[in-house]
């Protein structure tokens, strides 16, 4: 996909997320890897519902700001994901309701905040580790994301929200949507009890769809 087409896609996907309540106000940010090794990222304090393809922030491969409006203060977090995963072409960070609520709960399993409820959660996300609370834009937040990115497609920032990668921006958005739906299902089922996939069923999915590397 050429750069202009990627800019249009980022705007369209961001607007779709905004209209469906995955972000509000100036929250959340999206990024994508460019053909030359640089990156596009949504500008700081911009609404995902009203982005302009021409003013998206463009960074070089080292994260230096080249053009467009000032990049999101969380750009370093995105870059840390890309630096650990050559196979990742897009990263999505949202303040979506169910996952943000999950990130505020006590007693979460820091190695995996959600059980394997559905096969699509297993295939798209695998496991969801928790990253300790650090303020938005804190340099150590990028370090923590980098530590987890090599083995995970997604992670949950405590009291903040999810960070999700994918082979493309479109795939990252799909992964983020699946993850949000899984959190919603978990909250819905929690009062009633739930049946999760067994270790054997999870292993079968990883084998059948070759997803173990990114889980």
UniProtKB/TrEMBL annotation:
<dbReference type="GO" id="GO:0005829">
    <property type="term" value="C:cytosol"/>
</dbReference>
<keyword id="KW-0862">Zinc</keyword>
<comment type="similarity">
    <text>Belongs to the aldolase class II family. AraD/FucA subfamily.</text>
</comment>
<dbReference type="InterPro" id="IPR036409">
    <property type="entry name" value="Aldolase_II/adducin_N_sf"/>
</dbReference>
<keyword id="KW-0456">Lyase</keyword>
<protein>
    <recommendedName>
        <fullName>3-oxo-tetronate 4-phosphate decarboxylase</fullName>
        <ecNumber>4.1.1.104</ecNumber>
    </recommendedName>
</protein>
<dbReference type="GO" id="GO:0046872">
    <property type="term" value="F:metal ion binding"/>
</dbReference>
<dbReference type="Pfam" id="PF00596">
    <property type="entry name" value="Aldolase_II"/>
</dbReference>
<comment type="function">
    <text>Catalyzes the decarboxylation of 3-oxo-tetronate 4-phosphate to dihydroxyacetone phosphate (DHAP) and CO(2).</text>
</comment>
<keyword id="KW-0479">Metal-binding</keyword>
<dbReference type="InterPro" id="IPR001303">
    <property type="entry name" value="Aldolase_II/adducin_N"/>
</dbReference>
<dbReference type="GO" id="GO:0016832">
    <property type="term" value="F:aldehyde-lyase activity"/>
</dbReference>
<dbReference type="InterPro" id="IPR050197">
    <property type="entry name" value="Aldolase_class_II_sugar_metab"/>
</dbReference>
<dbReference type="GO" id="GO:0019323">
    <property type="term" value="P:pentose catabolic process"/>
</dbReference>
<feature type="domain" description="Class II aldolase/adducin N-terminal">
    <location>
        <begin position="8"/>
        <end position="187"/>
    </location>
</feature>
<dbReference type="InterPro" id="IPR050013">
    <property type="entry name" value="OtnC"/>
</dbReference>
<keyword id="KW-0119">Carbohydrate metabolism</keyword>
């Amino acid at each position: 996909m050429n750069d202009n087409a990627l800019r249009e896609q980022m705007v369209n996907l961001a607007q779709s997320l905004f209209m469906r309540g995955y972000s509000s106000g100036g929250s959340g940010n999206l990024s994508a890897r460019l053909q030359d090794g640089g990156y596009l990222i949504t500008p700081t304090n911009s609404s995902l519902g009203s982005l302009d393809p021409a003013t998206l922030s463009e960074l070089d491969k080292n994260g230096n700001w080249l053009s467009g409006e000032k990049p999101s203060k969380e750009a370093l977090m995105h870059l840390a994901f890309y630096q650990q995963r050559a196979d990742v072409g897009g990263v999505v960070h949202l303040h979506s309701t169910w996952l943000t609520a999950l990130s505020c709960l006590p007693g979460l399993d820091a190695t995996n905040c959600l059980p394997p409820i559905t096969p699509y959660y297993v295939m798209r996300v695998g496991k969801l580790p928790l990253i300790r609370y650090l303020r938005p834009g804190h340099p150590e937040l990028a370090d923590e994301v980098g530590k987890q990115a090599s083995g995970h497609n997604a992670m949950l920032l405590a009291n903040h929200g999810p960070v999700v990668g994918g082979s493309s921006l479109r795939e990252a958005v799909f992964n983020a949507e699946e993850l949000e739906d899984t959190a919603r299902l978990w909250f819905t089922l929690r009062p009633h009890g739930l049946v999760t996939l067994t270790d054997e069923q999870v292993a079968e999915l990883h084998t059948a769809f070759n997803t173990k590397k990114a889980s």
